[in-house]
Amino acid sequence: MAYIINKTNGTQIAVVEDGTIDQTTDLKLVGKNYAGYGEIQNENFVHLLENFASANQPAKAIAGQMWFDSGSSKLKFYDGTKFRTTGGAEVSTSQPSGLTTGDFWWDTSNNQLYANTGSGFVLIGPQSQGSSVTQMLTATVRDNAQVNRTVMKGIINDETVFIVSAVEFTIDSTDSNNAITGFDVVRAGLTLKNTTNATNGVTSTAHRYYGTASNSDRLGGNPASEYVRSVAGQPSVFTEIARFGDAGFTVGASNDLVIKIENDNQGVIQNDVGTIIKFKVDNSSAQVKEPLNITADGILPSASATFNVGSSNLKWNIMYANEFNGKATVASSMEVPVGQSTANRTASTAASNDTVAVRDGSGDLFATNFQGTALKANYADLAEKYVTDTQYPVGTIMTVGGDSEMTACAMTETPCGIISNKPGVVLNSDADGQAIALVGRTPLRVMGPVEKGDKLYVGANGTAQKANEGDLVGIALESNERFEEKLVEVFIKI
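The chain above was modelled as a monomer; its predicted structure follows.
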Protein backbone atom coordinates (compact mmCIF):
# COMPACT_ATOMS: atom_id res chain seq x y z
CA MET A 1 0.00 0.00 0.00
CA ALA A 2 1.04 3.70 -0.43
CA TYR A 3 3.40 5.49 1.98
CA ILE A 4 1.98 8.63 3.67
CA ILE A 5 4.89 11.04 4.29
CA ASN A 6 4.51 13.59 7.11
CA LYS A 7 6.63 16.56 8.25
CA THR A 8 8.07 16.74 11.75
CA ASN A 9 5.04 18.77 12.84
CA GLY A 10 2.72 16.03 11.62
CA THR A 11 1.60 17.82 8.45
CA GLN A 12 1.23 15.49 5.47
CA ILE A 13 3.54 16.44 2.64
CA ALA A 14 3.14 13.57 0.15
CA VAL A 15 1.53 10.20 -0.61
CA VAL A 16 3.90 7.81 -2.41
CA GLU A 17 2.18 5.09 -4.35
CA ASP A 18 3.69 1.59 -4.70
CA GLY A 19 6.36 1.29 -7.38
CA THR A 20 6.64 5.12 -7.89
CA ILE A 21 8.91 8.02 -6.99
CA ASP A 22 7.47 11.21 -5.52
CA GLN A 23 9.31 14.46 -6.34
CA THR A 24 7.28 16.89 -4.24
CA THR A 25 10.47 17.99 -2.46
CA ASP A 26 14.12 18.32 -3.46
CA LEU A 27 14.58 14.72 -2.20
CA LYS A 28 13.13 11.83 -4.18
CA LEU A 29 10.71 9.76 -2.07
CA VAL A 30 10.75 6.05 -3.05
CA GLY A 31 7.55 4.00 -3.07
CA LYS A 32 7.21 0.33 -2.04
CA ASN A 33 8.75 -2.25 -4.41
CA TYR A 34 10.38 0.46 -6.63
CA ALA A 35 13.22 -1.17 -8.62
CA GLY A 36 16.59 0.56 -8.35
CA TYR A 37 15.77 2.48 -5.21
CA GLY A 38 19.33 2.14 -3.87
CA GLU A 39 20.87 4.77 -6.13
CA ILE A 40 18.08 7.20 -5.36
CA GLN A 41 18.40 6.77 -1.61
CA ASN A 42 22.18 7.14 -1.73
CA GLU A 43 21.87 10.34 -3.76
CA ASN A 44 19.37 11.71 -1.21
CA PHE A 45 21.95 11.08 1.55
CA VAL A 46 24.61 12.93 -0.47
CA HIS A 47 22.26 15.89 -1.05
CA LEU A 48 21.63 16.09 2.69
CA LEU A 49 25.33 15.74 3.45
CA GLU A 50 26.28 18.63 1.17
CA ASN A 51 23.16 20.70 2.03
CA PHE A 52 22.15 20.77 -1.64
CA ALA A 53 25.37 22.61 -2.52
CA SER A 54 24.80 24.63 -5.71
CA ALA A 55 24.95 28.12 -7.15
CA ASN A 56 21.18 27.92 -7.61
CA GLN A 57 18.77 27.53 -4.72
CA PRO A 58 16.71 24.31 -4.46
CA ALA A 59 13.55 24.55 -6.50
CA LYS A 60 11.23 22.71 -4.09
CA ALA A 61 12.42 23.92 -0.70
CA ILE A 62 10.38 23.50 2.46
CA ALA A 63 10.68 25.47 5.71
CA GLY A 64 13.81 24.50 7.65
CA GLN A 65 15.70 23.13 4.62
CA MET A 66 19.42 23.97 4.48
CA TRP A 67 21.23 25.05 1.29
CA PHE A 68 24.92 25.72 0.78
CA ASP A 69 25.10 28.58 -1.73
CA SER A 70 28.30 27.68 -3.59
CA GLY A 71 28.21 31.00 -5.44
CA SER A 72 28.74 33.01 -2.23
CA SER A 73 30.03 30.15 0.00
CA LYS A 74 27.19 30.80 2.45
CA LEU A 75 25.08 28.31 4.37
CA LYS A 76 21.43 29.33 4.13
CA PHE A 77 18.08 28.11 5.45
CA TYR A 78 14.56 28.37 4.04
CA ASP A 79 12.14 30.24 6.31
CA GLY A 80 9.04 29.31 4.33
CA THR A 81 9.33 32.33 2.07
CA LYS A 82 12.97 32.74 1.11
CA PHE A 83 16.47 31.46 1.87
CA ARG A 84 18.28 33.43 4.56
CA THR A 85 21.98 33.35 5.50
CA THR A 86 22.88 31.75 8.81
CA GLY A 87 24.62 34.22 11.14
CA GLY A 88 27.58 34.44 13.47
CA ALA A 89 30.92 36.18 13.87
CA GLU A 90 34.54 34.94 13.91
CA VAL A 91 36.02 35.53 17.38
CA SER A 92 39.77 36.15 17.72
CA THR A 93 42.40 38.57 18.95
CA SER A 94 43.76 39.15 15.43
CA GLN A 95 42.25 39.62 11.98
CA PRO A 96 41.14 36.19 10.69
CA SER A 97 41.62 34.96 7.12
CA GLY A 98 39.31 33.08 4.80
CA LEU A 99 36.21 35.22 5.53
CA THR A 100 33.93 36.38 2.71
CA THR A 101 31.94 39.57 2.08
CA GLY A 102 29.45 40.23 4.88
CA ASP A 103 31.15 38.03 7.51
CA PHE A 104 31.70 39.47 10.99
CA TRP A 105 34.80 39.39 13.19
CA TRP A 106 34.73 40.18 16.90
CA ASP A 107 38.07 41.63 18.02
CA THR A 108 38.48 40.39 21.58
CA SER A 109 41.56 42.58 22.14
CA ASN A 110 39.62 45.86 21.72
CA ASN A 111 36.03 44.58 22.10
CA GLN A 112 35.05 45.88 18.64
CA LEU A 113 32.97 44.39 15.81
CA TYR A 114 34.19 44.44 12.18
CA ALA A 115 32.47 43.52 8.89
CA ASN A 116 34.22 42.03 5.82
CA THR A 117 33.84 44.09 2.61
CA GLY A 118 35.45 41.52 0.34
CA SER A 119 38.73 43.48 0.26
CA GLY A 120 39.16 44.10 3.99
CA PHE A 121 37.36 44.88 7.24
CA VAL A 122 35.45 48.00 8.34
CA LEU A 123 34.73 48.90 11.96
CA ILE A 124 31.10 48.58 13.07
CA GLY A 125 31.68 49.74 16.64
CA PRO A 126 32.05 50.83 19.31
CA GLN A 127 34.25 53.74 18.25
CA SER A 128 37.35 54.40 20.38
CA GLN A 129 40.33 56.73 20.06
CA GLY A 130 43.33 56.96 22.35
CA SER A 131 43.01 56.72 26.09
CA SER A 132 39.82 58.86 26.35
CA VAL A 133 36.26 57.81 25.48
CA THR A 134 34.95 58.68 22.00
CA GLN A 135 31.72 56.85 21.31
CA MET A 136 27.92 56.83 21.24
CA LEU A 137 26.96 55.67 24.72
CA THR A 138 23.57 54.54 25.98
CA ALA A 139 23.05 55.85 29.50
CA THR A 140 20.42 56.22 32.22
CA VAL A 141 19.91 59.74 33.57
CA ARG A 142 17.63 60.60 36.51
CA ASP A 143 15.29 63.59 36.10
CA ASN A 144 14.21 66.05 38.81
CA ALA A 145 11.14 63.91 39.50
CA GLN A 146 13.45 60.97 40.34
CA VAL A 147 12.46 59.09 37.17
CA ASN A 148 15.20 57.29 35.28
CA ARG A 149 15.40 58.31 31.60
CA THR A 150 17.20 56.35 28.90
CA VAL A 151 19.31 58.55 26.60
CA MET A 152 22.15 58.29 24.12
CA LYS A 153 25.26 60.41 24.69
CA GLY A 154 27.54 61.60 21.92
CA ILE A 155 30.99 61.61 23.58
CA ILE A 156 34.20 63.05 22.07
CA ASN A 157 37.38 62.67 24.19
CA ASP A 158 35.35 62.22 27.38
CA GLU A 159 33.21 65.34 26.60
CA THR A 160 29.46 64.87 26.17
CA VAL A 161 28.77 66.99 23.08
CA PHE A 162 25.09 66.12 22.57
CA ILE A 163 22.32 64.00 24.07
CA VAL A 164 19.56 62.19 22.17
CA SER A 165 16.31 61.54 24.05
CA ALA A 166 12.79 60.37 23.22
CA VAL A 167 11.24 62.67 25.85
CA GLU A 168 11.89 66.08 27.37
CA PHE A 169 13.03 66.23 31.01
CA THR A 170 15.08 68.27 33.52
CA ILE A 171 18.23 66.58 34.79
CA ASP A 172 18.59 66.13 38.56
CA SER A 173 21.78 68.14 38.94
CA THR A 174 21.83 67.95 42.74
CA ASP A 175 23.68 64.61 42.40
CA SER A 176 27.16 65.19 40.93
CA ASN A 177 27.24 61.60 39.71
CA ASN A 178 24.00 62.21 37.75
CA ALA A 179 24.70 65.73 36.47
CA ILE A 180 26.09 66.21 32.93
CA THR A 181 28.26 69.25 32.29
CA GLY A 182 26.57 71.75 29.93
CA PHE A 183 23.09 70.27 30.22
CA ASP A 184 20.08 71.10 32.42
CA VAL A 185 16.97 70.43 30.27
CA VAL A 186 17.14 67.65 27.68
CA ARG A 187 14.65 68.10 24.82
CA ALA A 188 12.89 65.38 22.88
CA GLY A 189 15.25 64.82 19.95
CA LEU A 190 18.89 66.05 20.03
CA THR A 191 20.20 68.63 22.52
CA LEU A 192 23.63 70.24 22.06
CA LYS A 193 25.96 71.01 24.96
CA ASN A 194 25.46 74.45 26.57
CA THR A 195 21.94 74.86 25.16
CA THR A 196 20.33 75.56 28.49
CA ASN A 197 16.70 76.27 29.23
CA ALA A 198 17.50 79.90 30.13
CA THR A 199 18.84 80.66 26.61
CA ASN A 200 15.58 79.54 24.96
CA GLY A 201 17.23 77.17 22.50
CA VAL A 202 20.33 79.27 21.73
CA THR A 203 23.69 77.53 22.28
CA SER A 204 26.06 79.72 24.30
CA THR A 205 29.27 78.07 23.03
CA ALA A 206 30.57 77.24 19.56
CA HIS A 207 28.78 73.90 19.35
CA ARG A 208 26.70 73.95 16.14
CA TYR A 209 24.97 71.91 13.53
CA TYR A 210 26.70 72.33 10.19
CA GLY A 211 24.56 71.30 7.19
CA THR A 212 21.02 71.74 5.92
CA ALA A 213 18.06 71.52 8.30
CA SER A 214 14.71 70.65 6.71
CA ASN A 215 12.82 72.64 9.33
CA SER A 216 13.32 74.77 12.42
CA ASP A 217 11.05 76.07 15.17
CA ARG A 218 13.29 79.07 15.92
CA LEU A 219 15.95 81.24 14.31
CA GLY A 220 18.19 83.34 16.52
CA GLY A 221 15.98 82.31 19.43
CA ASN A 222 12.86 83.81 17.82
CA PRO A 223 9.83 81.73 16.72
CA ALA A 224 9.48 80.96 13.00
CA SER A 225 6.12 82.78 12.98
CA GLU A 226 7.96 86.11 13.49
CA TYR A 227 9.84 85.88 10.19
CA VAL A 228 8.78 86.87 6.69
CA ARG A 229 8.37 83.98 4.28
CA SER A 230 9.03 84.03 0.52
CA VAL A 231 7.44 80.69 -0.40
CA ALA A 232 4.98 80.66 -3.31
CA GLY A 233 1.46 80.03 -2.06
CA GLN A 234 2.50 80.61 1.59
CA PRO A 235 2.54 84.38 2.07
CA SER A 236 3.55 85.89 5.38
CA VAL A 237 0.72 87.28 7.47
CA PHE A 238 1.51 90.42 9.49
CA THR A 239 -0.59 90.88 12.63
CA GLU A 240 0.76 94.41 13.15
CA ILE A 241 1.80 97.29 10.88
CA ALA A 242 5.03 96.57 8.98
CA ARG A 243 7.09 99.76 8.95
CA PHE A 244 9.62 100.90 6.36
CA GLY A 245 11.81 103.99 6.36
CA ASP A 246 11.15 106.96 4.04
CA ALA A 247 13.30 105.22 1.42
CA GLY A 248 10.43 102.72 1.17
CA PHE A 249 10.66 99.39 -0.60
CA THR A 250 10.82 98.06 -4.15
CA VAL A 251 8.90 95.37 -6.04
CA GLY A 252 10.24 93.46 -9.04
CA ALA A 253 13.42 91.64 -10.05
CA SER A 254 14.87 94.95 -11.34
CA ASN A 255 13.47 97.08 -8.50
CA ASP A 256 10.81 98.26 -10.95
CA LEU A 257 8.18 99.68 -8.60
CA VAL A 258 9.18 102.00 -5.74
CA ILE A 259 6.90 102.95 -2.85
CA LYS A 260 8.46 105.64 -0.69
CA ILE A 261 8.08 108.98 1.12
CA GLU A 262 9.38 112.27 -0.30
CA ASN A 263 9.81 115.55 1.54
CA ASP A 264 9.07 113.86 4.84
CA ASN A 265 5.31 113.40 4.25
CA GLN A 266 4.60 112.96 0.53
CA GLY A 267 3.65 109.41 -0.47
CA VAL A 268 5.06 108.27 -3.82
CA ILE A 269 4.29 105.28 -6.05
CA GLN A 270 6.87 105.29 -8.82
CA ASN A 271 7.61 102.99 -11.77
CA ASP A 272 11.37 103.32 -12.31
CA VAL A 273 11.63 100.85 -15.21
CA GLY A 274 8.33 100.69 -17.12
CA THR A 275 6.07 103.41 -18.51
CA ILE A 276 2.78 102.45 -16.91
CA ILE A 277 1.21 101.75 -13.51
CA LYS A 278 -1.86 99.50 -13.71
CA PHE A 279 -4.70 99.24 -11.19
CA LYS A 280 -6.54 95.90 -11.24
CA VAL A 281 -9.43 94.52 -9.18
CA ASP A 282 -11.75 91.49 -9.10
CA ASN A 283 -15.36 92.08 -10.02
CA SER A 284 -18.33 90.24 -8.49
CA SER A 285 -17.84 87.39 -11.00
CA ALA A 286 -14.24 86.72 -9.90
CA GLN A 287 -12.91 88.28 -13.10
CA VAL A 288 -9.86 90.53 -12.93
CA LYS A 289 -10.61 93.94 -14.43
CA GLU A 290 -8.22 96.79 -15.14
CA PRO A 291 -10.18 100.07 -14.87
CA LEU A 292 -7.23 102.47 -14.51
CA ASN A 293 -3.76 103.00 -15.99
CA ILE A 294 -1.36 105.80 -15.12
CA THR A 295 1.13 106.74 -17.84
CA ALA A 296 3.45 109.65 -18.50
CA ASP A 297 0.66 111.19 -20.61
CA GLY A 298 -2.06 111.00 -17.96
CA ILE A 299 -4.73 108.82 -16.39
CA LEU A 300 -6.24 106.36 -18.87
CA PRO A 301 -8.66 103.41 -18.85
CA SER A 302 -7.36 100.07 -20.08
CA ALA A 303 -10.15 99.85 -22.68
CA SER A 304 -12.23 102.43 -24.50
CA ALA A 305 -15.84 103.11 -23.44
CA THR A 306 -15.76 100.39 -20.75
CA PHE A 307 -15.16 101.89 -17.29
CA ASN A 308 -16.84 104.71 -15.31
CA VAL A 309 -15.71 107.60 -13.11
CA GLY A 310 -18.14 107.78 -10.20
CA SER A 311 -21.62 106.24 -10.18
CA SER A 312 -25.26 107.19 -9.71
CA ASN A 313 -24.86 106.68 -5.93
CA LEU A 314 -21.29 107.92 -5.52
CA LYS A 315 -20.74 111.17 -7.41
CA TRP A 316 -17.73 113.48 -7.57
CA ASN A 317 -18.60 116.95 -6.33
CA ILE A 318 -16.94 119.21 -8.89
CA MET A 319 -14.71 118.28 -11.81
CA TYR A 320 -12.55 121.00 -13.38
CA ALA A 321 -11.12 120.87 -16.87
CA ASN A 322 -10.48 123.14 -19.80
CA GLU A 323 -12.35 120.84 -22.16
CA PHE A 324 -14.56 117.71 -22.11
CA ASN A 325 -14.71 115.52 -25.20
CA GLY A 326 -17.59 113.03 -25.19
CA LYS A 327 -21.27 112.71 -24.39
CA ALA A 328 -22.86 114.34 -21.34
CA THR A 329 -26.09 112.75 -20.09
CA VAL A 330 -26.73 115.61 -17.63
CA ALA A 331 -25.81 119.32 -17.84
CA SER A 332 -27.10 122.38 -16.00
CA SER A 333 -26.70 124.57 -19.11
CA MET A 334 -25.40 124.56 -22.67
CA GLU A 335 -22.84 126.89 -24.17
CA VAL A 336 -24.15 129.24 -26.92
CA PRO A 337 -21.95 129.56 -30.04
CA VAL A 338 -19.50 132.42 -29.91
CA GLY A 339 -20.98 135.72 -31.12
CA GLN A 340 -24.61 134.83 -30.51
CA SER A 341 -24.84 135.45 -26.79
CA THR A 342 -22.77 135.80 -23.67
CA ALA A 343 -25.02 133.58 -21.54
CA ASN A 344 -25.43 129.82 -21.54
CA ARG A 345 -28.85 128.25 -22.02
CA THR A 346 -30.75 126.11 -19.51
CA ALA A 347 -33.38 123.47 -20.38
CA SER A 348 -37.13 124.08 -20.25
CA THR A 349 -40.31 122.09 -21.00
CA ALA A 350 -42.21 125.34 -21.75
CA ALA A 351 -41.97 127.56 -24.81
CA SER A 352 -39.71 129.97 -22.92
CA ASN A 353 -37.36 132.45 -24.51
CA ASP A 354 -33.60 131.75 -24.50
CA THR A 355 -34.00 128.14 -23.29
CA VAL A 356 -33.28 124.69 -24.69
CA ALA A 357 -36.55 122.91 -25.57
CA VAL A 358 -37.03 119.48 -23.88
CA ARG A 359 -39.99 117.10 -23.65
CA ASP A 360 -42.26 117.23 -20.64
CA GLY A 361 -43.49 114.32 -18.56
CA SER A 362 -45.95 113.31 -21.30
CA GLY A 363 -43.31 113.32 -24.00
CA ASP A 364 -44.55 116.56 -25.55
CA LEU A 365 -42.29 119.26 -26.97
CA PHE A 366 -43.41 122.92 -26.88
CA ALA A 367 -42.35 125.86 -28.98
CA THR A 368 -43.94 128.96 -30.32
CA ASN A 369 -42.92 128.16 -33.89
CA PHE A 370 -40.95 125.42 -35.66
CA GLN A 371 -38.95 126.79 -38.56
CA GLY A 372 -37.33 124.55 -41.17
CA THR A 373 -38.07 121.75 -43.54
CA ALA A 374 -38.69 118.11 -42.50
CA LEU A 375 -36.93 115.90 -45.04
CA LYS A 376 -37.61 112.53 -43.45
CA ALA A 377 -39.25 110.72 -40.53
CA ASN A 378 -37.91 107.84 -38.46
CA TYR A 379 -41.20 105.93 -38.73
CA ALA A 380 -43.12 104.67 -41.74
CA ASP A 381 -46.90 104.61 -41.31
CA LEU A 382 -49.75 107.06 -40.89
CA ALA A 383 -51.90 106.08 -37.94
CA GLU A 384 -54.93 107.29 -36.04
CA LYS A 385 -55.91 106.66 -32.45
CA TYR A 386 -58.96 104.53 -31.68
CA VAL A 387 -60.28 103.11 -28.40
CA THR A 388 -59.77 99.31 -28.29
CA ASP A 389 -61.63 96.86 -26.03
CA THR A 390 -58.26 95.65 -24.69
CA GLN A 391 -54.59 96.43 -25.14
CA TYR A 392 -53.49 94.58 -28.31
CA PRO A 393 -49.90 93.72 -29.32
CA VAL A 394 -48.15 95.41 -32.25
CA GLY A 395 -49.12 93.95 -35.63
CA THR A 396 -52.68 92.91 -34.68
CA ILE A 397 -55.29 93.39 -37.45
CA MET A 398 -58.19 95.50 -36.13
CA THR A 399 -61.85 95.96 -37.16
CA VAL A 400 -64.78 98.03 -35.93
CA GLY A 401 -66.56 96.21 -33.09
CA GLY A 402 -66.27 94.88 -29.59
CA ASP A 403 -67.08 96.83 -26.42
CA SER A 404 -65.23 99.89 -27.73
CA GLU A 405 -64.45 101.34 -31.15
CA MET A 406 -62.04 98.67 -32.31
CA THR A 407 -61.40 94.96 -31.66
CA ALA A 408 -59.25 92.19 -33.14
CA CYS A 409 -60.37 91.26 -36.66
CA ALA A 410 -61.73 87.79 -37.38
CA MET A 411 -61.39 85.99 -40.74
CA THR A 412 -64.98 86.88 -41.76
CA GLU A 413 -64.72 90.55 -40.79
CA THR A 414 -63.49 93.62 -42.68
CA PRO A 415 -60.00 94.85 -41.62
CA CYS A 416 -59.64 98.56 -40.79
CA GLY A 417 -56.00 98.86 -39.75
CA ILE A 418 -53.03 97.35 -37.90
CA ILE A 419 -51.75 98.14 -34.39
CA SER A 420 -48.75 100.38 -35.16
CA ASN A 421 -45.28 100.04 -33.71
CA LYS A 422 -43.80 103.50 -34.26
CA PRO A 423 -46.08 105.61 -36.46
CA GLY A 424 -44.59 108.49 -38.42
CA VAL A 425 -47.77 110.55 -38.10
CA VAL A 426 -50.56 110.06 -35.55
CA LEU A 427 -54.00 111.60 -36.13
CA ASN A 428 -56.03 112.47 -33.03
CA SER A 429 -52.82 112.10 -31.02
CA ASP A 430 -54.46 113.54 -27.87
CA ALA A 431 -57.32 111.01 -27.98
CA ASP A 432 -57.43 107.84 -25.87
CA GLY A 433 -56.72 104.44 -27.36
CA GLN A 434 -54.07 102.75 -29.51
CA ALA A 435 -52.42 104.06 -32.71
CA ILE A 436 -53.76 102.00 -35.67
CA ALA A 437 -51.77 102.15 -38.93
CA LEU A 438 -53.92 103.00 -41.93
CA VAL A 439 -51.35 103.71 -44.69
CA GLY A 440 -47.66 102.94 -45.27
CA ARG A 441 -45.56 100.07 -43.84
CA THR A 442 -45.75 98.45 -40.46
CA PRO A 443 -45.03 95.10 -38.72
CA LEU A 444 -47.86 92.52 -39.06
CA ARG A 445 -48.58 89.37 -37.01
CA VAL A 446 -48.32 86.46 -39.47
CA MET A 447 -48.81 82.69 -39.09
CA GLY A 448 -46.81 80.30 -41.29
CA PRO A 449 -43.84 80.82 -43.67
CA VAL A 450 -43.78 83.98 -45.78
CA GLU A 451 -41.81 85.02 -48.85
CA LYS A 452 -41.18 88.57 -49.94
CA GLY A 453 -44.04 89.73 -52.23
CA ASP A 454 -46.65 87.34 -50.78
CA LYS A 455 -50.21 88.68 -50.35
CA LEU A 456 -51.35 88.35 -46.76
CA TYR A 457 -55.00 87.99 -45.75
CA VAL A 458 -57.02 88.20 -42.55
CA GLY A 459 -56.58 85.05 -40.43
CA ALA A 460 -57.67 84.15 -36.89
CA ASN A 461 -57.61 86.42 -33.81
CA GLY A 462 -56.11 89.47 -35.51
CA THR A 463 -53.30 87.58 -37.32
CA ALA A 464 -52.61 87.28 -41.06
CA GLN A 465 -52.01 84.29 -43.35
CA LYS A 466 -51.15 83.46 -46.94
CA ALA A 467 -54.40 81.53 -47.47
CA ASN A 468 -56.89 83.62 -49.44
CA GLU A 469 -59.82 83.14 -47.10
CA GLY A 470 -60.27 86.65 -45.70
CA ASP A 471 -59.78 90.20 -46.95
CA LEU A 472 -56.36 91.36 -48.21
CA VAL A 473 -54.32 93.15 -45.53
CA GLY A 474 -50.92 93.77 -47.08
CA ILE A 475 -47.97 92.57 -49.14
CA ALA A 476 -44.89 91.10 -47.42
CA LEU A 477 -41.70 93.21 -47.68
CA GLU A 478 -39.48 90.43 -46.31
CA SER A 479 -39.25 86.63 -46.09
CA ASN A 480 -39.52 84.48 -42.94
CA GLU A 481 -39.54 80.65 -42.94
CA ARG A 482 -40.77 80.18 -39.36
CA PHE A 483 -44.17 78.45 -38.98
CA GLU A 484 -45.01 80.00 -35.61
CA GLU A 485 -46.43 83.52 -35.23
CA LYS A 486 -43.94 86.36 -35.93
CA LEU A 487 -43.86 89.99 -37.03
CA VAL A 488 -43.34 90.58 -40.77
CA GLU A 489 -42.84 94.03 -42.30
CA VAL A 490 -45.70 94.63 -44.83
CA PHE A 491 -47.00 97.26 -47.24
CA ILE A 492 -50.54 98.06 -46.03
CA LYS A 493 -53.30 97.29 -48.58
CA ILE A 494 -56.41 97.87 -46.49
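The domain at 382-492 is CATH 2.40.300.10 (Virus Head Decoration Protein; Chain: A,).
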